[in-house]
Each structure stands twice: as structure tokens, then as C-alpha cells.
């Protein structure tokens, strides 16, 4: 699916950014049932999970466009092995008694790999040929194969979506920034249980001339993709 012209200018803050789509991946962080649906880990911590629902439709629109364009798609899931050997005690101890990581919940053991709650919500469910990264921490690079995968496909730019803005999204962007990736966070494709944390998380990323990256939104990405593909059949690199 090689192309002769692949670069688009994407409206973003603090400044527009030129993206080579062949070197760009869409990274969708932790859009899991345990975080977004009632009865999951997010709700057991006392959070209003409906706050995260606002990111689903914009994220789905960008995901559909990326699939149509042949852009590399990466999904992440935070969770742990059934024996909790990869979960630090300080993390497991969080939350109310009997509602902690590994405890039984409405969707299986909370935040445990292989359980229903650990999986990605149906609206954004990965295709068979899309990459799924299971991570034990907040950042998607820690103790995972994400770095090796991105290098394999020649990725330099990341379009970042997911939840929550101030935790796993911010942590992943900071990790990626330290590794030399250019990160564009799509504001309406991210969400937090706390709207004020969402806003501040985005401000941190684009502050000081884009200290960690750029902030854009789904409409800008869809417009840039449409402009690039108007006279081109596909935009992805061969995979």
C-alpha cells in the first residue's frame, strides 16, 4: 500500500504539525470494560464511569478512518496476570476491601488478563490483524513490546486516544516523548473521570511550546486524512 504523497498538515496546539502517515500509528489506550462500564475497576474506586463515554464516538470515528487509510493501529490494555506476580502490592492495596485488583467482580476478576472486564469495549474492539499491547503499568512502554513494535514498522508519530487523560494517556505520552516520538493527543478522543483533570492533562502536554507533544482533535484528524486521501487510494505502509 505504498504511496507517493503521504504528508498532511494537521491543525493542532501549540502549532500545526506535519505528519507523514506512513510513519504514524494510532494508539488507543485502555478503552476497557473495567474502566468504562459499570461494575468495573473504575467504578469500584468510586468513579463516575459515564464521564468516559464521551470519548467513545470520536475515538471510533478516528479508528474507522485509520483502518480505511491503512494506518497502523495499536490498542493497549492495562491488567495483570492471574497470579498477580506482575502487580506491585502498593497497587493491589488500592480501593475498597474486596473490590481490589484480582477480586471477583461483575465481569470477572477485576483487571485480570483474560477476564471479560479486562477486554476492550465492543465499539472499539480490535480487528484480528491489529496490535494489542497488554501492559502491567500506566505507561504503554513499561514492561511491554510496544517500543520494539513501533520500531519494526518505522513509526515516528503517534496519534494518541484513550483513558484516562491524566493517568495512562499522559504517562504513555511522556514515555514516548523521552523515546523520540512525536505525539499528538486527540482531546475529544480522551477522557477522565474528573473533567478538570482532563483539561489540565491536555494543558500539560502542549505547554511551553509542546513540551510533551501536540493536542488536536478528531475533526482535525479526519479533515487531514480526507485531504490526503482525496486523490490517493491508501496511505499506509506495507505491513
UniProtKB/TrEMBL annotation:
<dbReference type="InterPro" id="IPR000868">
    <property type="entry name" value="Isochorismatase-like_dom"/>
</dbReference>
<dbReference type="InterPro" id="IPR050272">
    <property type="entry name" value="Isochorismatase-like_hydrls"/>
</dbReference>
<protein>
    <submittedName>
        <fullName>Cysteine hydrolase</fullName>
    </submittedName>
</protein>
<dbReference type="GO" id="GO:0016787">
    <property type="term" value="F:hydrolase activity"/>
</dbReference>
<dbReference type="InterPro" id="IPR036380">
    <property type="entry name" value="Isochorismatase-like_sf"/>
</dbReference>
<dbReference type="Pfam" id="PF00857">
    <property type="entry name" value="Isochorismatase"/>
</dbReference>
<feature type="domain" description="Isochorismatase-like">
    <location>
        <begin position="24"/>
        <end position="217"/>
    </location>
</feature>
<keyword id="KW-0378">Hydrolase</keyword>
Amino acid at each position: 500500500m505504498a504511496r507517493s504523497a503521504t504528508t498532511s498538515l494537521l491543525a493542532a496546539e501549540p502549532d500545526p504539525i506535519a505528519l507523514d502517515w506512513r510513519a504514524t500509528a494510532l494508539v488507543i489506550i485502555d478503552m476497557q470494560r473495567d474502566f468504562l462500564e459499570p461494575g468495573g475497576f473504575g467504578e469500584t474506586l468510586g468513579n463516575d464511569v459515564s464521564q468516559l463515554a464521551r470519548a467513545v464516538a470520536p475515538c471510533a470515528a478516528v479508528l474507522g478512518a485509520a483502518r480505511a487509510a491503512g494506518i497502523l493501529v495499536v490498542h493497549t490494555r492495562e491488567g495483570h496476570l492471574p497470579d498477580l506476580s506482575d502487580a506491585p502490592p502498593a497497587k493491589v492495596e488500592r480501593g475498597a476491601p474486596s473490590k481490589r485488583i484480582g477480586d471477583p467482580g461483575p465481569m470477572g476478576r477485576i483487571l485480570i488478563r483474560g477476564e471479560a472486564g479486562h477486554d476492550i469495549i465492543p465499539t472499539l474492539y480490535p480487528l484480528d490483524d491489529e496490535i494489542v499491547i497488554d501492559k502491567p503499568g500506566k505507561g504503554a512502554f513499561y514492561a511491554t513490546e510496544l517500543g520494539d513494535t513501533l520500531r519494526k514498522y518505522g513509526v515516528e508519530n503517534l496519534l494518541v486516544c484513550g483513558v484516562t487523560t491524566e493517568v495512562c494517556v499522559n504517562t504513555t505520552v511522556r514515555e514516548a516523548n523521552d523515546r523520540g516520538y512525536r505525539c499528538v493527543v486527540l482531546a475529544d478522543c480522551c477522557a477522565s473521570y474528573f473533567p478538570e483533570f482532563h483539561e489540565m492533562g491536555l494543558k500539560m502536554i502542549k505547554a511551553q511550546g509542546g513540551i510533551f507533544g501536540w493536542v488536536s482533535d478528531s475533526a482535525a484528524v479526519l479533515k487531514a486524512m480526507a485531504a490526503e486521501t482525496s486523490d490517493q487510494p491508501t496511505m499506509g505502509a506495507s505491513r
